[in-house]
Amino acid sequence: MTAILSLRSAAALAPAILLLLTACSSEPAQTTAEKAAAASVPGAPPGAVDDVKVANATASEVKESSDLMEFSYAYPLEAAKIPKLAEWLDADRAANRDALIAESRRDRVAAEKGGFPYRPHSHLQSWKRITDTPRFLSLSSEISTYTGGAHGMTTFGTLLWDRNSGKRRSPLDLFTSGTAFDAAIRDDFCAAITRAKAAKGIQLSAEGEDSVFAKCPPASAQTVWLGSSDGRHLDRLTIAIAPYEIGAYAEGDYRINVPVTAGLIRALKPEFAGDFRAGK
């Protein structure tokens, strides 16, 4: 008799249990912020918050457009998966946006007072992966800006994330000095500039010895990008040169490829020499 009552009780409770399970399964999944908050409570494993951020990382892109300004800033998934780097990129994005808004507001007020039209300003920047070796994530960015003049301007950015130290570095940080870097690549760099200008129909001799563009500039004063052909060693080098640096604005920018040689490797700080190899 007791067994029969138990079966009847279980049968009666079954709909309620099913309803409860259904209700639980329909609860919304935790957001990334909620997961991060849960991972940060006392007693959570060290690094749990970063683990949550990495697991939920996505490429980041912010765009904003108005009659005051146009702003965009993006970085790739590889950068988003490094929490400290993503935090720096987010802070850099915020700083560039704030600076653009402040400058745009100031110039719009000046335009209204001067009685001339205001042209919306812009800052458009996108970080892209050059290479991702076991030690380094190498990123490049092209930055297009406009502040109301006759034309916009293009500049470049570079960034290395060193996994061994957990720090952001400049490519030149890997060398004993900017002078040593320049000396190691000067001949190849200057010859490549001559070839690049010739490809655009520009002969250096025609510019004259007194021209501001006649001399080959120090490569260390330009933007240095480091890449890899095998995904393990840094063996590719590009010098990005903005307009006006080695030619008139109409010439545009230059991307000068320079070989990674044994001489360049000798100019490295010893701790980084094993991360490079001379190009083939």
List key phrases describing it.
flat; disordered N terminus; 280 residues; alpha+beta
Strand and helix layout:
Layout: H1 2-25, H2 32-39, H3 48-55, E1 60-65, E2 69-75, H4 77-80, H5 83-114, E3 121-132, E4 136-146, E5 153-162, E6 167-169, H6 178-199, H7 204-207, E7 223-227, E8 236-241, E9 254-259, H8 262-266
Parallel strand pairs: 2-3
Antiparallel strand pairs: 1-2, 3-4, 4-5, 5-6, 7-8, 8-9
Helix pairs in contact: 2-3
Description:
The chain has 280 residues and is an alpha+beta fold. 38% of the residues lie in helices and 24% in strands. It contains 8 helices and 9 strands. A 6-stranded mixed β-sheet has the order 1-2-3-4-5-6. A 3-stranded antiparallel β-sheet has the order 7-8-9. Helix 2 (32-39) runs antiparallel to helix 3. The chain is flat, with a radius of gyration of 28 Å. Mean pLDDT is 85; it is low at 1-11 and 13-27.
Please report the number of helical segments. 8
Mean pLDDT, as a whole number?
Answer: 85
Q: What is the terminal separation in angstroms? A: 88 Å
Low-pLDDT stretches are: 1-11, 13-27
Instruction: Characterize the main sheet.
Output: 6 strands, mixed
- The fraction of residues assigned to DSSP E strands is 15-25%
Q: How would you summarize what this structure contains?
A:
The protein is of the alpha+beta class.
